[in-house]
Amino acid sequence: GLPSVGAQPIGKARVHSLRVVGYDYVVYAKVDLVDAYSCILLPPRLSALFGLVTRDPSGELVWWQLRVLPQGWVWSSVLFNSSMHIPIDRINARLDKEGIRAVARHNKDDVLIAAVDTNNCEGAVSVAREEFQALHFLINDAKSTPPSSSVNFCGLRLTNGCCTMEPTRFEFTDTTASTAWSEFMNPTLKPSDRGNPRVARTTWLRKWFGVFNYFRGFLGPDAMSALFVIQKAQSVFQKVDEDIPEDLYDRLKKSFYTLVAFYLSGLPGLLATSLGDRLLGTVLLTDSNTASWSAVVLIAVTLDDPNSELAHSASLPVDFPTTD
């Protein structure tokens, strides 16, 4: 599959999707879906979870149910990803049957087409559009990306068979964090906000939850707990009629800076935290020139299985060379 170039953490699901794309698939396109979650029909038992009762003008009770998958529910992304396998599998089956040298991959509602050349990519996009429309998905032509040798996909950049971090990601520093928190406490309001900072703060929470959620595969227990605080706060701020607990701002600030500290701590954020005491260290191999850079992160761990074909823990080095 596509090699990853870069030392920053990359979501496991996205990397797995790209690793099964062949090296010779060097032309890419994206198909954007309009309000994709609302295209997933809920089964009756789940639909009953999202209901309310009103009274009509005649006094009769009316029961309302949400029939499609809502965004923001804790299990929505799981159900959506499972549902997206259906159109993606149908697309790939047709590509194989029609001899189109391309594959379709997705991360949630982001759909990627990778092909060996422009003609195959255009043919694959046509197939994808037909299959999505057959299942009543709506295509957003304005946001879809035509065939190209380079494309950004979920924070990654695919170029000529290689995968790197998207270069538009901003540098994160202590100053960034302080400025960001100040923006939360004293947001710039739009005329439509009518002097109420709640909408601006909700937008802030969505943004920073997305930033830290990007690294969730590398977060330790304390950082994960902090991430959940931001997620729950986002839910509170979204409900315009719900009062905000007095201690929420203090908990939010503590959680935000916990996540900032975890990220700014450097390489520990790249370790597989579930390894615990088995972790010996991290080795970072880098190379760069004036035009580009690359890095490979290696993790050294102990092995408790004496029958393993790999070297046993006793033969692994404990001290690693440094550049000091």
From TrEMBL:
Which Pfam families does the entry link to? RVT_1
* Record domain Reverse transcriptase: where: 1-158
The residue range of the signal peptide is none
Q: Show the SUPFAM superfamilies listed in the entry.
A: DNA/RNA polymerases
This protein is called: Reverse transcriptase domain-containing protein
Q: Which organism is it from?
A: Perkinsus olseni (Perkinsus atlanticus)
From the broadest rank down, the organism's phylogenetic lineage runs: Eukaryota, Sar, Alveolata, Perkinsozoa, Perkinsea
